[in-house]
Every structure is written in C-alpha cells, then in structure tokens.
Amino acid sequence: xxxxxxxxxxxxxxxxxxxxxxxxxxxxxxxxxxxxxxxxxxxxxxxxxxxxxxxxxxxxxxxxxxxxxxxxxxxxxxxxxxxxxxxxxxxxxxxxxxxxxxxxxxxxxxxxxxxxxxxxxxxxxxxxxxxxxxxxxxxxxxxxxxxxxxxxxxxxxxxxxxxxxxxxxxxxxxxxxxxxxxxxxxxxxxxxxxxxxxxxxxxxxxxxxxxxxxxxxxxxxxxxxxxxxxxxxxxxxxxxxxxxxxxxxxxxxxxxxxxxxxxxxxxxxxxxxxxxxxxxxxxxxxxxxxxxxxxxxxxxxxxxxxxxxxxxxxxxxxxxxxxxxxxxxxxxxxxxxxxxxxxxxxxxxxxxxx
Length: 354
What we know:
Blueprint: H1 5-21, H2 34-57, H3 61-67, H4 70-97, H5 99-122, H6 125-128, H7 134-165, H8 174-197, H9 199-207, H10 219-241, H11 259-284, H12 293-312, H13 321-353
C-alpha cells in the first residue's frame, strides 16, 4: 500500500479517541462488582469482536488460520496473555487514581517501551537510523515521552489541589494506584510486541486479499490471550467473593431493572476498546518505513483525549492555575510530538519513493 503518513496519523488519532473513551461507560453501571463488569467487557473486546472483525475483513479466514505456523500463534497468544494482565491492572488503577493520572503514567511507560522495543526486537533499528526522517521520528518519540510526563505532572498537581480543597474522589489511593499503573504500563507495551510477532499472520491474510485490514486477524490471538488471563483473574475473584450470580440477578429495588443497562455499558466499553485496534491496523499500514511509530502516535493521542475526558467528567474541578498550565503544556507537547513523527514518516516514505 502507498504510504500516506498524514492519513495514517489521522486514523490512529481516531483510535486514540476510542481508547480514551472506552472505560467511561463503567461509571454508569450499578450493583456490579469490578470483576463482573471487567469480565463482561473483556468477553466483548478480547474474544467476541476480534473474531467478528477478522471474519468480516479477512477473505478465506479459515484458510489463513490453517496456513499460519503454530509457533507464531502460540507466541502471539502468550504475549497477549501478558498484555491481559496489564489491561486488568490498568482497570484497577483507574479505580484508585481516576482517568487522567492512570492514562498519563501507564500509557507513558507503554509508549516508550512498546515503540522502541519493537524495531529493536525485529533487528530493524540499525537500518532505520540511517534514513532521512529518523531524527524527526526520534524527536517526536522523545517529545511524546516528555508530553506524557508533563501530563502525569499535571495529574499529580491535580491530586495535591484536590486534597487541599477536600474534593478528592471517593476511593482515591495514590500508592496502590501507582503500583498498578507501572505494572499496566510495562505489560501493556507487550501488546505492540505481540502485534509485531504476529506479522506473519497478517502477511498470510494480505496474500488472501485482506488489504488494509490485514492486521485484524492477529487480534484473534493477541486479544484471545488477553481474554484468557483476564478471565482467569476475574473468575478467581468471583469465586472468592461469591459474585458470579451478578450476571443474572441484581439486588431488589430500583437496581433490579438495571441489569440490561449494565450489559449494554460493558458491551459499549468492549466496542470502544476494540475499535481503537480495528483502525490501528489501517493506520499502521499507511505509516511507511516507520510503522513502529504507530504505537507512539496512538498512545500520545490516548493520553491527550483521556485528559479531555477527565475535563468533561470534571476531574479537574477545583485545580489551581499552575495545574492548568501543566495540563495545557501537555496538550501542546503531545500535538507537536504527533506532528514530528508524522513529518518524519513523510520524509521516510519520500526517500523510498525517490
């Protein structure tokens, strides 16, 4: 496919917006424990939708799967399972820290680790360093990391402001939240590596006519692994706390009729989460020589849009001017970072054309 970095970055930005919104429906569920909601949405985004998406966009899907080497499938599933642990930790961190801080710290770690480790693992990093746009791309990754850190600083300042104004959200716990954020960030980066390991599957799908959606078939295994590890943890919590019955019955009273809404919110969460990666493949194939920057771009946009979601959910109410300065600075840095990486991709694709 002919590289088009600007269009690719735009598509990746849409994915970032989808990711930033995906956990907001959780706020509308009632009388469900965390593990009930998490397993319900995980079943949608990590099991049901990857199969549906691959079936709709991959011609001769069963043939593609039959031609895929077993080793590639197993490795992709195992890496996906590690990502599932990170995704679960991410969901727990949101309970303790809220959207803004969780996204900034966890996604910041994932952005740097997942972006740079992928070309290093594939042995492509040395070859990429001599290309025309490399300096711009690396500058963009660096600015993205700084922007995400500044976003984290804004979140920390927000924490300080809310403590002083006695408007701290219920359930906020900085220590526990940071622990889960670090775990989520490191293991979430594994998803990008899982997609890279699954490239042979996408190549087979492309040979059968999958086109720009060649990467969708990888999600069957990377997301499938995530579902396995997440389901195991949720079922453990269900049996430990006796909450498995929440899927079929809620307490009496006004909450009793809320069960269909809970399932709808879980399904919406799953749809939004899967949506980011449904378009991720379409954006990545357009990024030219520096496809690995797709992970950095989508993560930068996730942090940007998640901060906006935090604003809309009034998480920043009561903050002092210095906190707002940090937040606006983070916005600007993240937008500049995406611009630098997009321009670097453009230069790299022009060099290939010439």
